[in-house]
Design a protein that fits this description.
The chain crosses the membrane at residues 26-46, 66-85, 97-115, 121-143, 155-176, 182-204, 240-262, 277-298, 307-326, 332-357, 369-393, 399-418. With 422 residues, the protein is mainly alpha-helical. It has helices at 22-54, 59-86, 96-115, 119-146, 150-178, 182-203, 219-224, 234-263, 269-301, 305-323, 328-355, 363-389, 397-414. It folds into two domains: 19-210, Up-down Bundle (Growth Hormone, Chain: A), CATH 1.20.1250; 226-422, Growth Hormone, Chain: A (Up-down Bundle), CATH 1.20.1250.
Length: 422
């Protein structure tokens, strides 16, 4: 973890003594990422298809309510599990027990969703499944921080982000193929995540900690840990705020671009799916290039803030272009530009978050708090955006995206306040 004011010479080839063989850890993390990202990207799609098959006339309302409750609970549950994993003294390590335990609970709950036709049972079971899935994934992602030296994290985060981008398409095809069987639809993505995690769970040397080496198990400190004092840890506070602002901008585009195609560009409803698929397909090569290259370059150059600043500016410009587009072609260009900034940002921002963690022993909890920045944005935007969209005669998506662009640019102003990080 970096200290404010400290500027060590950057050596891309240097390996600290606590990371004797990072290549093995990196390989294990990336193998697990294949299935875990498909799992994360598929579960929401699987639920939407399951709800549509059981309650076709009420699918929109039911799906929205279930996912909203799940998103809200994740704000509290993920940092809680992260804090508990930080305090775990199992002989199997701190992270592996939580990865296995959370994913098994997720699998059982998802099976209930696949077998039930009662909306209340499906809703409760899905909320349990998605919350435990995200908690298990968070425990996994901490390994990329604890088990990989700082001058390798950018590359690893970039490749993880690349898998995340590609897994969206893979998850769509997977769930589409399984839509006829509710049980398989809901459980196969989780089983795939467990399968690709087996090498990591068996071969990764998860450090075993003694009670004296972990934070004390105190409910006051555990729940109080959801708040990291920005006065004591200003780098953490400014990084969290910048991430939250960009998260609002990203959520505004990702949540409402389909509705903009319908209401803003007058795309017929029966063509929206194919147009959205075309956007995703066209952005895949861009994601491959910029997730990979951004991580590699930030490691080689030892610079993080310039990439984050450039990414935020690119996304702001794309939001403005998208909001003023009058044809699908123009919006496609805006979408591609936005994906450039988003891929660059999500890669380097994770490395920046890892660099400003206050205490390595609290990495699980603190990375969970950083996750709140994006999860909170995904909850806040759908709650506030309708007020903006319905202003001035309605369908005011340009105003929503202009606000998102301003928020993204505000994160740029914050970057110089993060000290000791290049």
């Amino acid at each position: 973890m970096s200290e404010p004011g400290r500027k060590p010479d950057h050596d891309p080839g240097y390996l600290p003594s606590e990371y004797p063989d990072p290549r093995k850890t990196i390989a294990l993390v990336l193998i697990a990422a294949v299935g875990l990202y498909i799992m994360c990207m598929s579960l929401g799609t699987a639920l939407s298809l399951r709800v549509a098959s059981v309650m076709p006339d009420q699918k929109d309302t039911v799906y929205s309510r279930i996912t909203s409750v799940g998103s809200l609970l994740m704000l509290f549950f993920i940092p809680l599990v992260g804090g508990l994993s930080d305090r775990t003294t199992s002989r199997f390590g701190r992270r592996r027990p939580w990865i296995v335990g959370c994913l098994l609970v997720c699998l059982a709950a998802a099976a209930v969703v696949g077998l039930s036709t009662n909306v209340w049972i499906m809703g409760v079971a899905y909320v349990i499944a998605v919350v435990f899935m995200q908690a298990g994934f968070n425990a996994y992602s901490v390994i990329a921080v604890e088990g990989v030296p700082e001058n390798r994290r950018g590359t690893v985060m970039g490749l993880m982000g690349l898998f995340g981008a590609l897994s969206f398409s893979a998850g769509t095809y997977l769930t589409g193929a399984l839509v006829g069987n509710g049980l398989l639809l809901m459980t196969v993505p989780i089983l795939l995540g467990l399968l690709t995690s087996i090498p990591l769970l068996l071969l990764y040397r998860d450090p075993v900690k003694k009670r004296s080496q972990v934070p004390p198990l105190s409910l006051k400190k555990l729940f109080g840990g959801f708040f990291v004092n920005p006065r004591k840890h200003p780098n953490f506070g400014w990084t969290w705020l910048a991430r939250f602002l960009v998260g609002l901008a990203m959520a505004s585009m990702q949540t409402y671009f389909v509705y903009y195609l319908i209401s803003g560009l007058r795309v017929p409803l029966n063509q929206v799916g194919s147009k959205a698929g075309l956007l995703t397909l066209c952005s895949a090569p861009i994601s491959v290039i910029f997730f990979s290259c951004s991580g590699f370059l930030t490691d080689r150059l030892g610079r993080k803030k310039p990439f984050v600043i450039l990414a935020a500016i690119i996304m702001a410009g794309a939001l403005c272009l998208g909001g003023t587009s009058h044809s699908f072609t123009q919006f496609l260009i805006a979408w591609e530009i936005f994906c450039v900034g988003q891929a660059m940002y999500l890669t380097v921002d994770l490395a920046l978050c890892a660099a400003v963690l206050p205490e390595s022993k609290d990495a699980g909890k603190d990375m969970g708090v950083f996750a709140l920045a994006l999860n909170g944005a995904n909850v806040l935007v759908p709650a506030v955006a309708p007020i903006v969209i319905n202003s001035a005669g309605g369908n005011n998506y340009p105003l929503l995206w202009f606000i998102g662009a301003v928020l993204s640019l505000c994160s740029v102003v914050i970057m110089p306040l993060i000290r000791g990080i290049k």
